[in-house]
Amino acid sequence: MRWPPRWLLPGSCANLVPVPDHAASRPPLDREALAASTRWRFEVVDESPSTSAEVAARFRDGEQPGLALVAEHQTAGRGRLDRTWVTPARSSLTVSFLLDPAGVPVARWPWLPLLAGVAVAEAVRRSAPDVAAGVALKWPNDVLCHDRKLAGVLLERVEAAGRAAAVTGIGLNVSQTARELPVPEATSLAVEGVVVDRTALLLALGDELAGRVAAWTAAGGQPDEVRASYLRLCSTVGRRVRVQLPGEDTLDGEGVDVDGDGRLLLRTPTGERRIGAGDVVHVRPEQA
């Protein structure tokens, strides 16, 4: 079976300050604080076309899991279905983690982007408690804040010399103004009324991701714990949605569950359908 090439899915920074009218002051990440992390080998670059592409290339050249490559300015980021994703310099977190889910059967790897989405959501909830109640996950790929996209996750399986690894790319909007966001359906933490320290937020994200991957790997990739955490945050379940399939086909129905393979269970007028992340173009709330 051909491996689906990619999914998008998606510490305390709780000292909130008033949001400026325009995010003119955007300090760089604290490289010294990141270098002290015991969870990841953080590397910060000023600019990168795509951190995920660079991490994948480095893995093929012999890089070991545990690398986290962060770009202050990503100029040609990629999302699901090869959509582009670009943000102003130092306005977001654009980071790719190199993971080795040792001992987890390949059939269970589709849970990784959902697990990463949970990690992003929980890091934001910890770091910005004033908006925690509004943070949710839209199946399969988006981290939302008050129903607008805050972050995305893209996972790729890469192979080299008989080894396999997962490159998990995360883009999280932090200080963009409303005018700097690409679409009206997007948001940032600043737009939501809070400013966080990007370094502390990145460390929180790294801790969440490392801890959840370690627990999932130790359980052999069993989805039970990840699925329970995901369902607690998933706003698609219990909601009527429209699923756009490749081409012009659409499905309307109610999201009723996410099954043990990470597929959305959709109740439609013609019966229940199970939909994999690689089978959809968009999932949106159904319009009245």
Summarize the structure.
The chain has helices spanning 31-35, 51-60, 111-127, 198-218, 224-233, and strands at 7-8, 41-45, 67-71, 77-78, 84-85, 92-99, 135-138, 142-145, 148-160, 163-173, 240-244, 250-258, 264-268, 271-275, 282-285. With 288 residues, the protein is of the alpha+beta class.
Q: Which features characterize this protein?
A:
288 residues, alpha+beta, BirA Bifunctional Protein, domain 2, SH3 type barrels, 2 domains, five-stranded antiparallel beta sheet, 5 helices, 29% strand, globular, disordered N terminus
Textual characterization of the structure:
The strands form 3 sheets. Strands 1, 2, 3, 6, 7, 8, 9 and 10 form an 8-stranded mixed sheet that branches. Strands 14-13-12-11-15 form a 5-stranded antiparallel sheet, with no helix packed on it. Helix 3 crosses helix 4 and helix 3 crosses helix 5. The protein starts with 6 loop residues before the first strand and ends with a strand. The protein has 5 helices and 15 strands. The protein is α+β, with helices and mostly antiparallel strands and 288 residues long. The longest helix has 21 residues. It has 2 domains: 225 residues, BirA Bifunctional Protein, domain 2, CATH 3.30.930.10; 49 residues, SH3 type barrels (Roll), CATH 2.30.30.100. It is globular and about 55 Å long.
Topology:
Elements: E1 7-8, H1 31-35, E2 41-45, H2 51-60, E3 67-71, E4 77-78, E5 84-85, E6 92-99, H3 111-127, E7 135-138, E8 142-145, E9 148-160, E10 163-173, H4 198-218, H5 224-233, E11 240-244, E12 250-258, E13 264-268, E14 271-275, E15 282-285
Parallel strand pairs: 2-3
Antiparallel strand pairs: 1-9, 3-6, 4-5, 6-10, 7-8, 8-9, 9-10, 11-12, 11-15, 12-13, 13-14
Helix pairs in contact: 3-4, 3-5
